Amino acid sequence: MKKTGAQILCESLIKEGVEVIFGILGGAILPIYDTLTQYPQLRHILVRHEQGAAHAADGYARATHRVGVCMATSGPGAANLVTGIANAYMDSSPIVAITGQVARPFIGKDAFQETDITGITLPVTKHNYLVSSAGELAETVKEAFYIARAGRCGPVHIDIPRDVQQEEAEFIYPGKVNLPGYKPVFQGHPAQIRKAARLINSAERPLIIAGRGVIMSQAYAELRELTEKAQIPVVNTLLGISSFPRNHVLSFGMIGMHGMAYGNMAVQDADLIISIGMRFDDRATASTGGFAPKARIIHIDIDPAEIGKNIRVDVPIVGDVKNVLGVLNKEVTMNTHPEWLATLNKWQREHPSLEIREGEEVLPQYVIRQIYEATQGDAMVVTGVGQNQMWVAQFFPFIRPNSLISSGGLGTMGFELPAAMGVKVGRPDEMVWCVAGDGGFQMTIQELATIAVENIAIKIAIINNSYLGMVRQWQELFYQRRYAHTKLWNPDFVKIAEAYEIPAVRVRHRDEVVPAIYKAMDCDGPFLIDFVVEPEENVYPMVPPGKSLSETIELPKPKKVSKRKPKVLARS
User: Fold this and answer.
1) What is the pLDDT of residues 144-186, one digit of tens each?
2) Considering its fold, how many domains does the chain have in total?
3) How many helices (H) and strands (E) does the chain have?
4) What residues make up the domain containing 333?
5) How far is CA 47 from CA 30, 52, 188, in A?
6) Are residues 228 and 96 in the same domain?
7) What CA–CA distances, in Å, run from 64 to 94, 215, 311, 462?
């Protein structure tokens, strides 16, 4: 039976199990949007900016382990998706981005709202398509979804000219994908796994670094089995947080630029590093030349391109983390490392890293810890990038699997609000907290409209220090406090929320923090809290740029305050 290209697209999305699309329409994609009215099983959420659509699809994908879908029109609409697509690419999130394009006769002629979006997205997608006929659409969609979720996940882009959307063709949805050039390896090489097991069995100071690959593979049980069977301590990358429960006796927190001092010390003193589903990015390793100088390294990753890219590896294992650990656990013998664990526990006592000062002022660390206490960890937390992100990573002890959603590789300000929207849509029964900086929040603030209209019941905590905080911290520590263009003049966030008919409160004193959090949680719909915090609070620990993990700066000791009364100058 013949159908239009737009109908073929909708039918194909349904075949792939798509239930939600985040997007905003325009002329070049109008035939698809007109056709969507025929398919009520495809829920469309109208965002207020295309970047929000891509981030929402990303958050949805991370929360559900399904492919997220976003749509935009040609030209500026498609270009506005690019930041969100790049974010998904850097963090290996499976999304399919669908854009309208000018009609085929006008391509390459600078037609109204024409942009070479396939060329623009080429470096930040796993694959992209410019569909040349309606007859290609079904196969294209089938391939796109397969590529997005097979192997190392990532974004795929489909660009569909306007006349292709209207053209008719026979609709036959393929039963399988035939891509001879794309054959991901899912099973680790047995000989390499045996070699890794021998190193693990003989190590005296082994350490597991668990990354986002554990979460993507849902290898929580396998990681825990390896950890407990061989009594190996675990540290996490930023995006690996919530792959292993923070309250476990063998968990030693996050490593890297703002990781725990004792975790960084463990990396530097280990004789064996078992890196699982992580890519040795610079935020985790700091200076690669000084990374884990005493250790041999096992690297398990589904993407062969990541192995040996940044760090020399002794035993590479290419494969899906869940599959590899399932085999590796059978080869690893039961073991104990009492001296090593005693050393780590001693370092944890001597270098606590996480302290919250007493006082009446509102400290961001205190806010995060109180959100944790109020939820008892039974929540999903979404952040953008910057100080707010690091305080969440440090002061919210993530216990539940896949409960931190954050922008890692691209470090995207503005990710948090639309991504939290996508998380809540994908997991409607979850308590979802969006923790945002006052700078990042304003980059996608317009999505408050989407949240209000769709009644997406996220709780928003703005960490409002009136600065671009992380940049200001660098200016303080490395640029002699020259605060060039980091001071923010902010609007009244409470009034803005209320203008969108979202209830909100402002918190200026510490004793107001807990009541505000419970008020937000008791609200059936979305709720915003503007936490006015100490403006020049810094994130510690911190590894200075260009330094190794051995050179971690710990929390400075508080300065002694003089008790002498200040002199009062008499008025003349």
Assistant:
1) 999 999 999 999 999 999 999 999 999 999 999 999 999 999 9
2) 3
3) 23, 20
4) 190-350
5) 16, 6, 42
6) no
7) 11, 11, 32, 25
